[in-house]
Amino acid sequence: MRKIKKPKVIIIGGGFGGLSVAKKLSNKNCDVLLIDKTNHHLFQPLLYQVATAGLSPAYIAFPLRSIFRKTNNVRVILGEVKRIDKNEKKVYLNGENYSYDYLVVAVGAGHNYFGNENWEKSAPGLKTLEDALTIREKILLAFEKAERTEDEVKRQKYLNFLVVGGGPTGVEMAGAIAEIAKKTLMQDFKRINPSKANVFLVEAMDRILPTFHPKLSQSALRDLKKLGVKVLLSTRVKEIRDEKVITDNFTIDTATVIWAAGNKAKPLINQLNTETDKMGRAIVSQFLQLKEDKNIFVIGDCACFIDEKGRTLPGVSPVAISQGRYVAKFILNEIKGRVTKPYRYFDKGNLATIGRSKAVADFGWIRFSGFFAWLLWVFVHIYFLIGFKNRFIVLLEWIFAYFTYQKSARLIVSQKLG
Amino acid sequence: MRKIKKPKVIIIGGGFGGLSVAKKLSNKNCDVLLIDKTNHHLFQPLLYQVATAGLSPAYIAFPLRSIFRKTNNVRVILGEVKRIDKNEKKVYLNGENYSYDYLVVAVGAGHNYFGNENWEKSAPGLKTLEDALTIREKILLAFEKAERTEDEVKRQKYLNFLVVGGGPTGVEMAGAIAEIAKKTLMQDFKRINPSKANVFLVEAMDRILPTFHPKLSQSALRDLKKLGVKVLLSTRVKEIRDEKVITDNFTIDTATVIWAAGNKAKPLINQLNTETDKMGRAIVSQFLQLKEDKNIFVIGDCACFIDEKGRTLPGVSPVAISQGRYVAKFILNEIKGRVTKPYRYFDKGNLATIGRSKAVADFGWIRFSGFFAWLLWVFVHIYFLIGFKNRFIVLLEWIFAYFTYQKSARLIVSQKLG
Predict the structure, then answer these.
(1) Interface contact A417-B393, CB threshold 8 A
(2) Which pLDDT belongs to residue A236?
(3) pLDDT on residue A199
(4) What's the average model confidence in pLDDT over A332-337?
(5) Fewer Cβ atoms within 10 Å of its own Cβ: the N or the C terminal residue of chain B?
(6) pLDDT category, A1, cuts 50, 70, 90?
């Protein structure tokens, strides 16, 4: 058992994991440095709503500095860690470096194109605000281009939308795009009929939402079909190029492809020179540490924790938050010379929404879908948002959208036009 | 007197001028095509609040299509007019062209660097949402960089902000940046003291707000000084480069320069091959037409209307709106074979805000400043915003900001960091 007096803790990443470590270490007997590439904590579960013009970015992104304005031991820095030196116990940014006693790596995951990184340009993924704004612009521009063109074939290409991946993000995106096309834009276009839009959801497995119970997958599938989404199961994407998606079954001409098919830990994990799984995640001990370096913790989407039954945990925010709290407790215990029990995760259940009044909830002991699952989804997401005003305005936007079918943030900002 | 049955009207630009033409021609006996480079009408008077993180873009930008969803004779197109052919009576976009009986050019103005276009990169202006987001990111990043650096000289450079131009936009920007520095960010930074930030406002004339009465200029100057803004009158910028602004009096090291010093009509005006003034604006007849082509109207910031006393009109939204309404009336009269009287502008007065509880109001017959001018400013801006929900949320944001000094949209979105 070690005992470090007033240790220096460096946390890389201000997502759910990193933030929960920093919060629990606030005003405790340690110096915390939180480093993030952006200036905000992003509430990723609602990012798809930014991408589909439902919410303004500011309401799901909270300045990290503001969160820690009243703490005296947490310093926030905007920057990108380029190198980690385990021997020196230092992290290197462009220009400066910082020493640590404990390092918490919580950098999350990026998109996984499974070796086809060249698809990224045609099929952006959804991880950051920048991604969401890129996708929003792509979707809105497709409708505008369809309205402008005289060519029927081109028009249909602009009105075909394709989402790759049937996990929660893919399902939410497909449902939201279908709603925009069938409802929001219905009256706005004079020449095109936005309801001629096709939304395809391509999934390699034989069901969508594979982390949920099969019954809920069934129910989500029915809901998506009701919204007019064409769900293509057991279908693998073989090529994306020239505004075409080629699967093992057929080819679809489409100007808008969104990638929600898989995650891969951020490349910074390679700096740790440690064992990783096939998603690039660092394999951590029962204490969420690197097996060979007890000063380094890895948590959240970039960590692979294997429990006593050999199972790994999904890359969702409750896991990241719970791991962040555990690490903070572990550090605080060590400061006091106490031992911490190995980490255990208690499953808090799973929620996914398909669209207006449609969601699925899976708590293991109880499973349900439909309006009440959706109300629960609304409640949980408002509750976990940071900031009273953000909660209030997001709720207001949802109530407004519920009654009018209008989307709040239908903005094409960049002026790169054809 | 001509009489054209069901004429084709093309409006270029969905700003205050173009929008008011299209609105007044809605559901009338003509075919209207509204062409804009973006998909939204921008409420420019509040753009500085987006640039200073006070409001999210979506609440001051309203989709043009939605405005005309219930009209059957107005078609909206997202696109850029590249060429105007007065003989053929056609406008050319990339790819397609459209014929008109009447053309209304309402493309507005861009920044005027008076021959120093290379300054634009260092000193962006504020005209579009894209501009505003660029400036917002620049301002927020400057504080972040100041926090990160160890170098005192560099730190001060990041904490120096300079606004060129003492018109309403320049005054509003300078006031808002000072408020961010002195109030909003005060507690958020641990190492830098945001109150060490200097905000400079450089104006070539001997007073700010030159279109207002001198007494109000005085009062605005006092208010800015109270906010800590360093106003440099009778000072001319000679060079902007390498994070340095060189004036005829001194040199200031600053990483953040904002250009609000002058406007120039958009280059599309050159396509009209008509007489222009030194700001590049088309000189129009008493009917707001080109003198040599009665099928073409030019209105708003890209038009130079000279009244019977030889005066020109300022580039403000009430002028554009009034001119737009006039043109629509003119066209509707011609459809009915009626003659329209020459255009006259009735001055509706001038408002500018300096910051929280501080504004000036100039109606000619009455002038006042202070809290009541500010309340009037708030009321007028909420009233003229489009959309009930936008008004409600903007008002909510202002009330919230009034009591907490917090800014709603403190987002650094792009990940291009040092």
Answers:
(1) no
(2) 95
(3) 97
(4) 94
(5) N
(6) low
- Tell me the three state secondary structure of residue B194: helix
Token pair of A51 as six digits: 């991408």
Which residue among B96, B172, B179, B275 is the active-site one?
Answer: B172
* CB contact (8 A) between residue B78 and residue A133: no
3-state SS assignment for residue B215: helix
Contacts of residue A41, Cβ cutoff 8 Å, sequence gap at least 6: A14, A15, A19, A61, A62, A64, A67, A386
CA A5 to chain CA centroid, nearest Å: 36
Q: Taking residues B315-334, report their average pLDDT.
A: 96
Whether this prediction's pTM lies above 0.80 is answered by: yes
- Please answer yes or no on whether B410 and A38 come within 8 Å at the CB atom: no
Is residue B2's pLDDT more than 70?
no
Chain A residues within an 8 Å CB radius of B110: none
Average pLDDT over residues A18-23: 98
B235 to chain A, closest Cα gap in Å: 34
- What CA–CA distance (Å, rounded) separates B251 from B237? 9
Q: What is the residue-wise DSSP string for B264-276?
A: EE-GGGGGG---B
Indicate the residue of B38, B397, B406 with minimum beta-carbon distance to A412. B38
Q: So what's the ipTM on this one?
A: 0.89
List beta partners, residue B360: B352, B369
B32 pairs with which residues across the strands? B9, B74
Q: How many CB pairs under 8 A join A and B?
A: 142
Chain A residue numbers touching B79 (CB-CB < 8 A)? 148, 417-418
- The alpha carbon of residue B122 is apart from the nearest alpha carbon of chain A, in Å, by 19
Q: How confident is the model at residue A3 (pLDDT cuts 50, 70, 90)?
A: low
Judge: A396–B400 Cβ closer than 8 Å, yes or no.
no
Residue B172 catalytic?
A: yes
Distance of CA A112 to the CA centre of its chain: 13
Q: What average pLDDT is seen over chain B?
A: 93
Q: How far apart, in whole angstroms, are the C-alpha atoms of residue A14 and residue A32?
A: 12
CA gap B193, B228 in Å, rounded: 14
